[in-house]
Amino acid sequence: MTKRNLLLEIGLEEMPARFIPDSINQLASKVENWFHTNSIGFQGISVFSTPRRLALLVRNVEERQEDREEEAKGPAKKIALDENGNWTKASIGFTRGHGMSVDDIYFKEINGIEYVHVKKFIKGQDTSHLLAELKAIITGLSFPKNMRWANLDLRYIRPIKWLVAMFGHEIIPFEIAGVRTGNTTRGHRFLGKEEIELSAPEEYEEALLRQYVVADAQKRKETILAQLKKIGDENDWVIPMDQVLLEEVNNLVEYPTALSGRFEEEFLEIPSEVLITSMKEHQRYFPVKSQQGELLPRFITVRNGDDHHIEKVARGNEKVLRARLADAAFFYKEDQKMEIKAALEKLKNIVYHEEIGTIAEKSDRVRKLVALIAERLNFAPEIVSTADRAAEISKFDLVSQMVYEFPELQGIMGEKYALQKGESRDVAIAINEHYMPRNADDSIPGSPAGALVAIADKLDTIVAFFSLGIIPSGSQDPYALRRQAAGIVQTLSEKQWGIPVESLVGLALSLVSQAGISKRSEEEIYYDLIQFFKLRLKHMLQERSIRYDLIDAVLGGEIGTVLSVVDKAAALQDASGREDFKENIEAFSRVLNIASKKEVHGEIEPDRFENTYEQMLYKKYLELGKKAEEGMDTAAYYQMLADIKPEINAYFEHTMVMAENPDVRENRLNQMAALAVLIMKLGKLNEIVVK
After folding, report:
1. pTM listed for this prediction
2. Which residues does the UniProt record annotate as the domain DALR anticodon binding (predicted)?
3. What average pLDDT does the chain have?
């Protein structure tokens, strides 16, 4: 069977850089699934993307679908045949609907019931007759933001300007938003030709390169990195590589050319974080440092074009940056006049959320929550004092001109301004740290005071929004509550703080309720919060490659401390590789399953035991309970549970729990319930799948 290459290109007005990677990955995934679903063979897919295009080259596509045989299931046998064994209208209609006859019927048993089946031979169609279906894939792509243009109904990331759809030399005909497919693409907007006619799909990448478009995003990124390295080596500079910035710059250009510029040394008097943020966030420039790590009055930018008139381009970028830095210098100078007390007064008039209150009110709750958490963790007075002051003034920099202009600097400027105003270094550091971790790659607060305020602030935010019924669902999480909960879990885990998640939630919920914010019952809010944190813990354990059923087990009951969740999951994961794991879990599960038959449990009365097996198991129960109270390593606790497996098995072999005598039955259920409590310290072990 002969093969051809397929080229699919969507030409657009410039797309937002941050949306391009997901868009091209989505297109490639959908096209790949389409080929598999339609049983059309191909060798591989190459992806291309620039600010103006999303494109795929599918190599060595089969010219025809594979012939295939499909099995179709029909009515049950008792419906397909009447009492005389004749075919009914149901069976005849079923076969006719598949283009077959009752002679083709055979029966197949499913879950103990026989059903009518037929096998259909489906001859493969020519690939060229099916490729127009790719139109639905293009129009079906989803984007974070869409727009409409002209009088068209289509909503898309940006207006479609051209479409290329080629199967070998053949054009695949379809039309989207008034644009018909063809074999004509476009080069660089300023350096290349307006139209480039392609005679074959495999010409695509090279043809665009001749017109100043590096279509392969990875090759474009490698080009940028090589140019940055060359400039750095030539000048003995260090260029710190921010991967997020690199990705964005890469998706802003089609033909990259890196160049350097400079700014006045007097701007180095501004905090380096301000300079770097201004360069990165506003101008997409790479900052430059010396070999000793000091920020230099230099920057590197990447031009979307060649090196013609590069000096003029550098001067233009310098002029733009100079204006930005002049603004920053003015803001920084003006902020020196700000007093912390006056800034805190301003926070009383700034609404955090219309149904939650002002930032000052939130800070007050955070301060109270810090004190409650610190009390339960038994922190030293000096740490509590530092955390209290940090919580009190943690948001004061939000009213500074610098943070108003550069929101990314909240906390960072708070630390610097706090030091300038005479606050202790520990308090200043905690102000900065209370926003940490700011993202998935960020570290947790280093100081205990910073971690206390960070947990309290994030927890107050989560609980307040849950109290209003604002709960993340699907991809909707406008207040980043998942990220904040993950930050709490990460901090508790790495700090190894022994406070149960249930206690934390309860403390924050009581403060939010006292503030009159809640619109739901405390029971509902509490339940939703615990489930929410269980999902965050589940995600954390999945990242550590813990088995799914072990995760379900350790999160089946109360959460407890994050550290205990991690320890229990690790202990069970380790134990699951041993030969006796299956038998141990089966024994524990018998106890848990029968204990669940009784909702209210009473005291065990040993004088009601009727055999030695009850007594032996009771003795082991007392020993285990004593060890549990004393505290012990989780792995050792599991082994102690495993050691009473013989007594559990002997008990069930010689004891009928559901005895006819109600008093005996009651006592035996109480014994099972008491033992179940000790087993549940490791988790809901009857959730574990054993084979």
Report:
1. 0.80
2. 587-679
3. 93
